[in-house]
């Protein structure tokens, strides 16, 4: 864990933590998105909404990309770094257009969530989510696919 001091400057981490905490409690989507874009370098598309209490990665927030018209639910955590016993992982998080992430979900480093996907509340997203997929669980699994007409179709059965 001590490697954190050699990967990100101390004062940048402090600034990021302060901005993130101010944004977490801010009910204004417009001001919150401005803070994330201008002060943290997060890429956020048009008409995207980030709910209250969302926790963005403190060390590398600039590695988060959120598409147009997407929603991150209350108390969601988005991580771009991860400390494990023997390794340190760093990866971009890409959230596509028209994505809905349910409340209390966690998105781990290196994950891409495809356009029009839905992540159920309380999910742990540790792998890529294909476009038009509905995923849920810990870890998140594909429940069904939504086609372009928004009709539900079950995932293909393996085996």
UniProtKB/TrEMBL annotation:
Coiled coil: none annotated. PROSITE patterns: HEXAPEP_TRANSFERASES. Gene3D superfamilies: Hexapeptide repeat proteins. Keywords: Repeat, Transferase. GO terms for molecular function: transferase activity. This is Acetyltransferase. It comes from Marinithermofilum abyssi.
């Amino acid at each position: 864990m001590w490697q954190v001091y050699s990967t990100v400057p101390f004062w940048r981490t402090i600034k990021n933590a302060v901005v993130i905490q101010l944004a977490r409690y801010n009910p204004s989507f417009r001001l919150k998105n401005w803070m994330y874009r201008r002060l943290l370098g997060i890429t956020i598309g048009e008409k995207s909404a980030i709910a209250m209490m969302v926790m963005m990665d403190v060390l590398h927030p600039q590695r988060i990309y959120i598409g147009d018209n997407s929603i991150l639910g209350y108390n969601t955590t988005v991580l771009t770094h991860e400390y494990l016993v023997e390794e340190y992982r760093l990866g971009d998080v890409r959230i596509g257009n028209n994505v809905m992430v349910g409340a209390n979900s966690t998105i781990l480093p290196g994950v891409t969530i495809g356009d029009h996907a839905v992540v159920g509340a309380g999910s742990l997203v540790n792998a890529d989510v294909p476009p038009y997929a509905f995923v849920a669980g810990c870890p998140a699994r594909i429940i069904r696919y939504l086609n372009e007409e928004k009709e539900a179709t079950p995932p293909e059965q393996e085996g």
